[in-house]
Amino acid sequence: MTQRFSASPSPRPGTPTHRSGTPGTTALEIVVGCKVFVEVKKEKKEETREFRKAEILSVRTHNDKPEYYVHFVEFNKRLDEWVGLERIDITKDIERPAKKRNGKGGNQFRDSDTSSRVGSPLREVTGRGGGGVGTTVGQKRKISAIEDIPTPNAKATTPSTPLVEATGEDYEDGGTPGNGTPLGPLAATFSKEQEIERLRTSGSMTQSHSEISRVKNLERIHFGEYDVDTWYFSPYPQEYSDAAVVYICEFCLFHYISERQLRRHLQKCTVRHPPGNEIYRCDDISFFEIDGNKQKTYCRNLCLLSKLFLDHKTLYYDVDPFLFYIMCQQDEFGCHMIGYFSKEKESTEGYNLACILTLPQHQRKGFGRLLIAFSYELSKKEGKVGSPEKPLSDLGLLSYRSYWTEVIVELLLETKELNEDITIEDISARTSIATTDILQTLQSLCAIKPYKGQQILCLSDGVIASYHKTKEKHKNRRIDESFLKWTPPHFTSNQLRYI
Ligand code: ACO
Ligand code: ZN
Q1: Which residue lies with its CA nearest to atom 14 of ligand 1?
Q2: How much is the pTM?
Q3: Residue 386: helix, strand or coil by DSSP?
């Protein structure tokens, strides 16, 4: 069965007619850098039309009509999309970009080209815009595209088999381009293709001043039994941008631009779980630990995939300094990736997690919480306190806040029951949550109150009630530390030299 998960509602059928001829803006005036009012897609067509201010990031012609890539001002970038003129309110004045000193304006039919963008600085990529929080995931569309892919013939890992151990070898493919092949020297001036390769190989996107990365380049991926709409740009090779769908093997993460190529790959791919050591298995959930230095191809492909849904710092090529923890759900076919987090082998800032992702088709089911809980279990084993790498995305902050709240409130209620006193340092020592995160969480709960010249911790009835509600919701999915078979890996300074 194939399901499609969309990050935003499908286009509203019967959207208003083209309003050319009305006084106001014409297509020719809408250029990169302009701000216009764009109709927001609605779930139900009977809902009233709503327009939001949006910046034009790119312009193209599609079926002989202009299309505009828009970013809704103050909303998360994952809502950016291509729109036709019929969704732009051309009766309203447009905000024009500031004039360039040399007097050249933007070329409306030029793709995201630095020279055509004037006066608008690179947007922040913290992803803290408010509007994306209500993102709709879960729209399902059954398609039969590759339902006849042969059933995997390799023996799947079943819960009764022992934990999987790493072979120490990287996955290999038949030389498919774009699967982590090293790239040649780069020219001083970049074509779009070279620019994408540069983004792919030069590390963090936040360090990139590229305009190309502002525009989403892939529409959809096919992953396991799901078709998933993408959220952000990811530096897959340039030729992938022309494909409607990118096909990814859910086990080894090799990617292809046609269903036929994936089908051929699946006939010979015997991999049924991520590489690395399986360090946790409880019920149908497993975690695999992967060393970026040993499994470069897999980890680079993982970073490429996760960039589609993560818009803050993500590395593609320089995976050596990281460990990757992949969370899978097992069935008779193998271990299906649900999400992952990465972690620096050595973090001078005390981070215990670099990037975290739940694949969109599995979001809002408590898996993000499991990933976060697991990262703290590792910190507890290390005897360290940890915190997620900043900046957090909007969804990252929501998930962390929810986890911190639950863990801290649980501990406070426990100590109250035992009539014990507890300080913020004690909470930190017992949970491995950093004191700054504890303080922020307690402040957000209004739990720090002045009392006789001191500050005391006090939980309101509302906070306690919502804690019980959330706990009930999560009771079936928890990390049981007794199933963690892991000793913290130690790296010599020689092994960390590449950092
Ligand atoms: N809207 C509102 N609340 C949300 C949403 C949402 N779209 N998504 C998660 N939450 C909240 C929920 O309230 C939930 O709390 P609750 O259980 O108390 O209700 C909490 O976050 C956790 O929800 P989960 O279902 O456990 O999380 P999920 O599996 O959806 O994963 C994650 C969360 C990993 C942040 C996911 O949204 C994701 O992958 N997003 C894209 C990548 C990203 O932004 N990663 C974080 C970057 S920051 C960093 O890497 C350090
Ligand atoms: Zn494969």
Answers
A1: 399
A2: 0.76
A3: strand
